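Researcher: Please predict.
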Amino acid sequence: MKKIHFFVLLCLPILFTACTKDTGTLQVTYNKATAIYGDLDDVRSQPVNSSVRAIDNPGKIYIAEDLILLGEEEQGVHVIDNSDEANPQTVNFINIPGNREYFVKGDFLYAESYYDVVKLDISDPMNATLVNRAEFVFTEEMRNNEGETLLGFSFEEITEEVDQSSDLYNEIMSGNFVYVDFAQRVIPRSAVPASFAGNSSAQSGTVNRVTHYNDHVYVLGRSDLNIINDDADFAVVAQQANIGEEMETIFPYQDKLFIGSRASMEIYDISNPEAPTLQYTFSHATSCDPVLPADGAAYVSLRTGDFSECPGDVNSLIVLNIENLRNPQQEAEIPMSSPYGMAKIGNYLFVGEGANGLTIFDATNPLDLQQVAHNGEIEAYDILAHPSRTDFILIAGTGGLEQYALDGLDFDLASKINY
């Protein structure tokens, strides 16, 4: 069993101040995250349902016919009654400690929970029940010297001088998150679980790391694909290690899995659900990139920016012809400002560009997109289609989840869930 004292996470430098001292150090201001420990058994035994609470740190969003699930990072999921779209009401909170990513299939919710993946029955959203738990899907338990389990991080901004010849300085300058152990030694980011850091009845956004296909649950780690058989045992039946680096999105399409990483989009054949086979790799500039396959095309949004989690200067939408899934062909690369999530509604492709607004393409020909509108007034990070209506759209911004009725390309705000 791997034991550690604590991790420290260093984010991209917020500020560098010039330093000309003979020591070769540089003063750096950065965010520091120190590990929090606790009793994992106590965490696992928490009640599933709890009272309604404020939305403080929103995460994953899922929309069903008259229900919205909205993640609370590292804590669980808000259940929102959306039967009256003009007046959505939060009615329950589902406790899922350590959760960031989840997926809904029918009446079941599959979710990360620290080291585990849990399966919850949400057929009664007011009284969700735990069906099963696959333990230690992502990594071995990490403990301190007192036998307590790593359960998260606390953050603070600090300023200190860093030796420019140190591994720490090199990691900071590389633009990646940097982890160091209790002795301040740099450790691989892959050693920290990723869980820490659409189907027929409803829609999820294009930013996903958990999905379900053919009675199996697929969960992305940092570089691994974990496969859980959705049977009575609910156990990990296969793991493909080191299939990529910084994998971010997973999306099923026909009998394939589309996996987006910061450097590529890969297609895996899952006709044998427990033995995915790599079928195609499309390499691209390092970026953050949701992937959306639809109607014989795959849309890959590439996003970078200075002082962002995706450093660089490539911002575009790639269009791939996937009619032949064994040999996809790039059809176009469309320059954009800052593409995030996407949704295809009817003959239109909606692409969120964060603070830069919402861009809309005519996708009547899915391989020949034509930009028809750009709305700079709507902040759009993820886009969700309603499961049965083509005249309705949900858009997530930094201040809340907005619901719009669509009249052609005109937007009429129905309601906003603030956070």
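Model: The longest strand covers residues 149-163.
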